[in-house]
Amino acid sequence: MSAVDSELSAEERLVTQFVQGPVARLVLSRPEKRNSLSQAAMAALSQALSDAANDPGVHVIVIAAEGPVFSAGHDLKELTAHRGDPDGGGAFFKATMDQCARLMVSIVRHPKPVIAEVAGLATAAGCQLVASCDLAIASKEARFQTPGVHIGLFCSTPMVALSRSVPRKHALEMLLTGDMMPAERAAEIGLINRVTDAEDLTAETMALAARIADKSPLTLRIGKEAFQAQLDMPLADAYRYAAEVMVDNMLTDDAEEGIGAFLGKRPAQWTGH
User: Fold this and answer.
1) How many CB atoms are located within 10 Å of the residue 222 CB?
2) 3-class SS at 259?
3) Residue 136, strand partner residues
4) 59 within 8 A of 220, measured Cβ to Cβ
5) Do the Cβ atoms of 64 and 17 come closer than 8 Å?
6) Helix 90-108 and helix 39-53, axial crossing angle in degrees, nearest 10
7) What are the phi and psi torsion angles at 55 (to 5°)?
8) What kind and span of H or E run contains 20?
């Protein structure tokens, strides 16, 4: 647990941070609020992600949650409380959506791999959070939903992450129906990577995180950045870009060490350079 978290009461704690070797666990810690993404919760998660980015000892990040709900999305009570503002809440709504967008973009552009560990329900912006992570593992009990259409509010911002994570028709089915999706189906369409028994979820997630964290942190950063950058490029441009990245990567100390270790049949010693 971080020093900051240790000074807070359970009621005040929004995101609990643990560092287990090279893996940082960021745990949404307001189960009584269904881990809703209030402005304070998003700020806390953003700060925790920034701290992990700046910690050279952290190679991989896991985002998990306390309780039966991973995240119910935006705090509707917080949003509704501002309908009495002079502008009907417009400025507060915009600030909240802008803050959420920055959070999701920061995960996609984070220099380190981010894995979602989903034990329960992930709806609306909570589903958006899962879709924004690089990888996701869920328990058999997990459920996923973009239910905005049920309350007259299309899940437009979750749509951005969802449409970039799963095929278009599956994304639209979730968005247009608002139906609950079981974990097995979420794995079938690519929203999550795998499904496991609830009692094995954390162990499975941490094992995956550890396997990734064992690699060169420089190579992970280069690879994640390049993957995101080439996605929207035309094919020929993507290959030109990837070739440039490959050449630069080959010139790093870690690539020289890794290839030498492979040829010499010995463990590699990464320096991050």
Assistant:
1) 19
2) helix
3) 116
4) yes
5) no
6) 20
7) -95, 110
8) strand 15-20
Q: What are the percentages of helix, strand and coil residues in the chain, rounded to 5?
A: 50, 15, 35
CA–CA dist 67, 251 (Å, integer): 46
pLDDT value at residue 176: 98
Other beta carbons within 10 Å of 7: 9
Task: Return the closest-CA partner of residue 60 out of 32, 35, 26.
Answer: 26
Task: Please answer whether residues 13 and 48 qualify as being in contact, where contact means their C-beta atoms are separated by less than 8 angstroms.
Answer: no
Nearest to 52 by CA among 138, 130, 111: 111
pLDDT tens column, 103-132: 999 999 999 999 999 999 999 999 999 999
Sign of CA dihedral 248, 253, 259, 263: positive
* Cβ(57)–Cβ(41) below 8 Å: no
* pLDDT tens figures, 176-194: 999 999 999 999 999 999 9
Confidence of residue 11 (pLDDT cuts 50, 70, 90): very low
- Which two three-digit tokens encode residue 110? 């984070």
In this structure, what is the dihedral angle of CA atoms 29, 32, 34, 37, given to the nearest 10 degrees? -60
Give, in order, the Cα–Cα distances in Å from 117 to each of 150, 201, 209, 241. Answer: 27, 7, 11, 32
